[in-house]
Every structure is written in structure tokens, then in C-alpha cells.
Amino acid sequence: MTRDPNTTFFGHPRGLFYLAFTEAWERFSYYGMTALLVLYMVNQLLLPGHIEQVAGFAAFRAAIESVTGPLSTQALASQVFGLYSGFVYFTPMLGGLVADRWIGQRNAVVIGALAMSGGHLAMAFDQSFLLALLLLVAGSGFLKGNISAQVGALYPATDESRRTRGFAIFSTAINFGAVAGPLACGLLAQVYGWHYGFGVAAIFMLGGLATYLAGYRHLPARVPRRTRDAARLTGAEWRVVLALVAVMAITVFQSIAYYQLANVLPVWMQDHVALQLGSVQVPIPWYQSIDPLSSILGVPLLFWIWTRQAAGRGEPGDLAKIGIGAWLAAASNMILVAAIIAADGRPVHPVWPVLYCAGQGIAFLYYWPTLLALVSRAAPARVNATMMGFAFMSLFVANNLIGWIGTFYEKMSPVEFWSMHAAIGATGGVLVLLFGRALNRVLASGANQPLRPSAMTIEVER
């Protein structure tokens, strides 16, 4: 869709401004709330005097424990977090389907923003906790993929270069929200109480909705989709699809080693890290900002490293980068192991969790954007969008697994627990070493397709 130059924003369609700021506010609220969630459950919601007030929680807990067996407060919090964070990555496929077939992307985003605003407001009350999670998961499903699809639809089909830069601007907004959310919500929760932290997340989500509605007329109502080619996949294309599924399965190990920083890490820090710096008590949720901040700062660093490598012995290929991400995730967990051993029973210095989170941010940059770019380039054209959506199923699996694995935290020593995660991350690296060459040979046949902008929409999503 072409627009008059007077309606552009720094050379981009004016709609990009509204989409980027909507996403910044939405990510602010999402990451701010997520940074509080486990600590809130462990320190208040799931304790006697509060848990009885949560509507429907007795039946919900019984359903979980019918599968897992009896769970402690921390283990139950871990399981709830895993289910929530996992389904956040599952529902966008359903939200995209509804938007494509019935209501269009613009209406879907409004519905998603309203549901998420309601979810954040409901989080401010113990009684509506489960309703809050349900609204947030459903709202994310309507909003997450559909707002990204609208970014691409702002540009003419032939304007690939400007579209790619537009997605880069959009991704910057994601990072801004991911850094700012935990800082603001964490401070308010520590100074005034949990519900103030959740309340400001609701305010910013409503701000995102207001921003989106203000730019409503500048946005495409329905993103046109290419007609699906009815021809069947060839044998070679099926081999590429299966190879991509194998790569996605490998990255589950990296994701488990990475995503535990939002689940068990805050609980471990609360018990084992010296958070008092002089007269200041550092809010634990602030550590959730280090990972996205290191991703922001790490992009130019990695581009410089890869450029130097390309001029020398050669830049690592996609599978090699995914493997490096696995080893970095493993090494980040070993930072905690080394810090715990060195502390010898004393509180761990707060700099070590900082290094752990920063290392995980760089590990994420190595493996997740690379996976999306690989799928976008190599997947057969007639199933390319489907495979991009399927890549997120690896995060659905990984987040559900971190919830289950987190239930073992109280049964293990901290050294054993974080060593286990280092081993899980290293398993991803070993699998790349064992099967990387064979997978590369298969994927080479599909790698000559152009990089689709769909890979840029979520390169920094977590």
C-alpha cells in the first residue's frame, strides 16, 4: 500500500509509529508483569490466607497435582509459570487463524489489547488470578502475531529494503519495553506492594491500546495472504521440513537453559544473593532487564565479530551459531555454579547474576534469531509461514518443561540445579556437533530462498 510522502514517519509509513509504540507499551506491561509473577506467587499468592481466595484455584491445583503429585509452594509456582509462559507462545497461531479467516488483523489486535488490559487489571486482585492469566494468554494470542503482520503490510511488496528497516525499528520498541517494564514494575512492587507493580502494567497496556486506536485509520484492516499453492511438497522439500523440525527440537535444550532465568532464578536470588548495596535493596525483577539490555548492546558487537570472521576464516553458519548459543547458555549457568561454590555458604555477590543474565542475552542472540532466519530462508515457499509459526512450538515445549524442571529445585542443591541446566544447554551444543553436517547438507537445498521479513518480526521476542 503506497502512501503520500507527507504521511510518512522518518521515511516510513505513519502506521509504523503507532505499531512500534503500541508494541513498546505492550511489551513493557508483559515483561514487567512476568518479572513479578513467580516472586508474587511464592511470597504471597500461594501462601495460606491468600491461596484460598483465588477463584477456582483448588480445582486447578488438583488437576495439576493429578499429573505431578503433591507440590510445594515453590514447585506449584514453577508449574503455573511454565504453563502460562508456554501457552503465550501457543495461542498466536490460533489468533492468526481467527484474524485471517474472520475478523482481520486490526480487529484482532484491539481484542487482544483489551483482553490483556483486563488481564493486567485482574492481576491486581488475588481472587481473579486465574482469570488474569487466561485473559493474558488469550490476548497475547490475538495481538502478538497480528501486529507483526501489520508491520509488513504497511509496505509495497517490492519495497523489501524499507520493510526490513521497518521491522528493525519495530524490534527496537520490543527491546525498549522489555528493559523498562521490569525496572518500573519491580520498583513499584518493592516500594508499594505487588498490586502496584501489576497496576502500572495495566496502565501501560491501556496506553498501548490508546496508541493503537489513535493510529487505527493508518493501519491495514486485513493483511492479504498469498494464495496457498495446492501442489504437494516434493520428496526433497519434505526432507528440508524434517531437517528444520530436527533443528527446532535441538533448540529446545538451549531454551530450557535460557528461560529458567524468569522462573527459578528470582527464587534462588531471594534466598542466596546479597541484594543490599549500601542502604539500597536492589529489586530482584530488575535483573530481568539485563538480558534484553545485553541483547540490544550485543547486536552491534556480534555483527562486528561476524564481519571479522567473514573476512578471515569465514563466518559461522546457521547451525554453528545455534550450537554456539547452546554453549553460551551452558556457560552462563556455570557462572552461577562457580559463584555458589566460591561463596562457600555465604551470600553470593550480586555481580554474578548480572553476568549470568548478560551471558544468556548473548546466547539468545546466537540461537533464536538464527533459527528464525534459517526457517524463513530454507522452508519451502508453500509452507514457509506454517513453519515460522511451528518454530514457536519449540518455545511452547521449552517453557512447559522449565515449569516442570523447576519443581525439582527444592529437592536439589543450587549447585546441582544450575549444573543440570548447564548440562541441558550443553546437550544442544553436542547435538549440533553430532548432526550439524548432515542437517546442513539437507538444508542447503532450501537455503537459496530470499530472507523473508517474517524472520525480523520477532528476532528479539522472548
Please outline the helices and strands:
Blueprint lengths: L7 E2 L2 E2 H32 L11 H12 L4 H16 L2 H32 L6 H25 L6 H33 L1 H21 L20 H25 L4 H9 L3 E2 L2 E2 L8 H22 L6 H26 L7 H28 L5 H8 L1 H14 L7 H30 L19
What report would you give on this structure?
This protein has 2 domains: 13-224, Growth Hormone, Chain: A, CATH 1.20.1250.20; 233-462, MFS general substrate transporter like domains (Growth Hormone, Chain: A, Up-down Bundle), CATH 1.20.1250.20. Helix 8 (235-259) runs antiparallel to helix 15 (414-443). The chain is mainly alpha-helical. The chain has helices at residues 14-45, 57-68, 73-88, 91-122, 129-153, 160-192, 194-214, 235-259, 264-272, 290-311, 318-343, 351-378, 384-391, 393-406, 414-443; strands spanning 8-9, 12-13, 276-277, 280-281.
